[in-house]
Amino acid sequence: MSRRPSFGRSLLAVGLFASGCVTTGTYNAKVSELTAEKEKLARDDSAREKAKVDELSAKIATLEAQLKDTEGRLKETSDKLAATIDARTKLQKQLDDSTALVGELKGRLEKLGQNVEKLTSEKGALAAGLDDAKVRLEELRKQKAAAEASAATFRQLIQKLRAMIDAGQLKVVIREGRMLIALPNDVLFDSGKTDIKADGKAALAKVAQVLATIPDRHFLVAGHTDDVRIHTALFPSNWELSTARAVGVTRLLIESGMKPQVLAAGGYGEFDPVVPNDSDQHRAQNRRIEIVLQPNLSDLPSLDQVAAEAAKPAK
Is the pTM of this model over 0.85? Predict the structure, then answer.
């Protein structure tokens, strides 16, 4: 701005001196004109500068507004970022906790699976043991029932044959788990003979009447001798003698009313003594006829049960 007035004065001076002759009034007029022009130029420059300043101010205000808006958005973004980081941290912790829990549960599940397998195995063993116990219990029940039935039969025999027992004609005993009626040979036979004596026939008839009342039973008539050996044309050994006497008693029992289907005869010779053959009295006890009550087949375990028991491992 200061350069222009100087420049105007110079021009004015140059113009005046160039014209050669200039009056003071003209000079002053020119000076006033130039001064007015200068002031106008100053006003114009000021207006332009003010306009520029206003424009710049407006731009600055706009920028400041944009900056403020940007700062607001930046803060909002920072808050969101912080919230996101916090949420991520929490999620990561939850993930870590979940991973740890999954690992723990997996371990428990594996252990539980092992326990389940063990329990399943134990359950199977217990079930098998229970089934076996049930079978054994049922077998014991059957054996108990059979034992009670045998005991009842034994008591009935003693009761029904009491008079003959008291008279010494026979004995009702349990030997080697078998119930039997033992009749001495002296009541039935003479020495070395197989013909039944009259008193023997009467005794066997009474026994047949009693045995015929026992249902579902088979009987073995067994002949026994002492150790004094016999050797005749009819009886080469005690086997033949004991067997012939058993057959004779069996026939008499059938004649007295017993069914032949439930009777069998056998001879043991001297090989099944009840006492040692060391005296005449003991030899007399060994010479005898035994009528053995055979156990019912239904009271015995089946072949399948016997095979199953045999197949079980030893404990």
Answer: no
Structure token pair of residue 174: 């349990």
Pick the CATH number of 161-303 from 3.40.50.1100, 3.40.640.10, 3.30.300.30, 3.30.1330.60: 3.30.1330.60
The span from the CA of 119 to the CA of 232, in Å, is 75
Low-confidence ranges of the chain (pLDDT < 50): 1-3, 7, 11, 14, 16-18
**3-state DSSP call for residue 219?**
strand
Taking a C-beta distance cutoff of 8 angstroms, is the pair 75, 83 a contact? no
Query: DSSP string spanning 275-297?
Result: S-S-SHHHHHHHSEEEEEEEPPG
Which two three-digit tokens encode residue 135? 């079978």
Domain boundaries, the chain: 161-303
pLDDT in tens, 259-310: 999 999 999 999 999 999 999 999 999 999 999 999 876 655 555 655 566 5
Continuous segment of H or E residues that includes residue 269: strand 263-269
Alpha-carbon span 241 to 238, nearest angstrom: 5
Chain-centroid distance, C-alpha 103: 26
Quickly list H helices, 20-161.
24-160
Q: How far apart are CA 288 and CA 9, in angstroms?
A: 184
**131 to each of 140, 145, 270, how far by Cα in Å?**
14, 21, 47
Under 8 Å between Cβ of 240 and 290: no
